[in-house]
Amino acid sequence: MYSTEAKSLNNAKQIISKVPEITVFFWIIKILTTGMGEVTSDFLANNMNPVIAVAIAGISFVAVLILQFSVRKYITWIYWLTVIMVSIFGTMAADVLHVGFGIPYNASTIFFIAVLAAIFGIWYASEKTLSIHSVYTFKRELFYWATILTTFALGTAAGDMTASTMHLGYFYSGIMFAVLIAIPAVAYLIFGLNEIFTFWFAYIITRPLGASFADWVGVPKSRSGLGIGTGWVSLTLTILIILLVGYMAFTRKDVSSHEKLANDAA
Questions:
Q1: Nearest C-alpha neighbor of 218 from the set 119, 30, 91, 82
Q2: Do residues 133 and 106 lie in contact, with contact meaning Cβ atoms separated by under 8 Å?
Q3: Which of 52, 126, 146, 172 makes a 20 to 30 Å CA pair with 62?
């Protein structure tokens, strides 16, 4: 007969989440990666052949995604490296539609909204949940990363649409998205808005929020920016991300007590 501890270890081995615990550190790193992906994509596209830049980003994205799927449990640096590559490649995917094919930002925004809605619909029909706490099977992880990639592409298109098509500029676009992200957060805290809806709404908005402010700092003054340079902004954000991810990996603050048991048992 199993002891209580043995049973707990056995159950932990069977359910090991592949995503981090949602903490304030999660949201800080997420916003930093959105800004980093935006300016890095722009820097690469402006300083080398755009086709080669997209190819390198695409190959790197696939390689890192394979690494993420190959591990059996959540590993901090692998997860966030995957998010970074999704951010860079997702930005390029949205930009290719506009720059490469001349598709207006409002049209690409609507397109990615439709794609995201389809993914959510198929995911829920298949798994009966959209909770990231349930991402412990291969199929659910496929849905999860397909959703993440689409949210980054959607956020890029939406941010460019408000800044360029709607002529708000990067700074005021960032302010607008900051207000938008606060609405469901307040509704969740005060009125108990659905937790899963609140999470995914906030996750989507973090992309244009971070990217708008990163663009504002990096792009030239002729484009309503501060003119610091996308390369310098990318480097600064990369250093901050490395420091925070290293801290999370060391302290394991991004892993719940249940997941710590599961990871140790794996």
A1: 91
A2: no
A3: 126
Distance (Å) of CA 127 to CA 21, 131, 144: 21, 10, 12
pLDDT tens-digit map of 30-85: 999 999 999 999 899 888 888 898 899 999 999 999 999 999 889 999 999 999 99
SS3 content of the chain, % helix, strand, coil (to 5): 80, 0, 20
**Residues 6 or more apart from 62 whose CB is under 8 A from it?**
none
Radius of gyration over alpha carbons of the chain, in Å? 19
Measured in degrees and rounded to the nearest 5, phi and psi for residue 96 equal -60, -40
Rounded CA-CA distance 13/15 in Å is: 6
| Token output for 194 | 């659905």
Asked if residues 224 and 171 have their Cβ atoms less than 8 Å apart, the reply is: yes
CA distance 186 to 129: 23
